[in-house]
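Forgive a beginner's question, but might I ask you for the amino acids of a protein and the tokens describing how it folds?
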Amino acid sequence: MLTTPEMFMLAALLVGVGLFGGVLSGLLGVGGGIVIVPALYHVFSYLDIDLSLRMHMAVGTSLATIIPTSIRSVRSHHKRGAVDTALLRQWAIPLFIGVLIGTVIAVFVAKGGALTFIFATVALLVAAQMAFVPHTWTLRSSVPGGVGGALPPVGIGAISAMMGIGGGTLAVPTLSAFGVPIHRAVATAAGFGLIIAVPGAIGFIAGGWNDPVPAYSLGYVSLLGFALIVPATLLAVPWGVALAHRLKPQPLRWAFALFLALTSLRMYWDLFGH
């Protein structure tokens, strides 16, 4: 049991994570998961939650917090006319299929440190892409359609569900490579977060239902973490949206890359540094 001062410290930490995650969600369209997952992982370590449950709890709780955050973020971007609604409709079903695949793998296949390794590896690859590939570089001038065009959103949905992120981490650089301007990519990715988070969170609730999870949890979703993080995140999302529309593309990419790289290196250290 935690002492009263420790409980206040934990609550303050989770609120701080929510504020930072909200700013990042509005700024980068990532749903805050890239911050919330590693933060929750360390909080759950502090609470001595079993190692086999720790990352699953962090991912499941993160996906749950992304639901209200993404709604707030995409509405804010939509008011500014930045969301590509046609692309959102085009990618919705492939994203959903990918989320189902990724959730099944995460809940039933990936055990121990596998999810942590997936998170760290993908985050580092995306950081390198955002830092070193010029924002003017494109793979092609438009988003592909047809069966081949469905593969990127399927992959984004699957990996995002396993990482507990809103999709922007992967969707923003992918859309940029397809010639979508970065601010439009960020705004549209906020909508992807909702498509990913709803089925993903439901899957993590169901998958952890019979596991020995901590008190005040629904499956792999911590209700305490959800209750403390979400209000702070919702408060901070508009701040991030305002920043996103004021910053030039290159600083936005550098901020994104730095954040992902630091997160990745810290998680590798947890896996292999001891």
User: Anything to note?
Assistant: Residues 13-272 form one domain. The longest helix spans residues 51-79. The chain is about 75% helix and 0% strand.
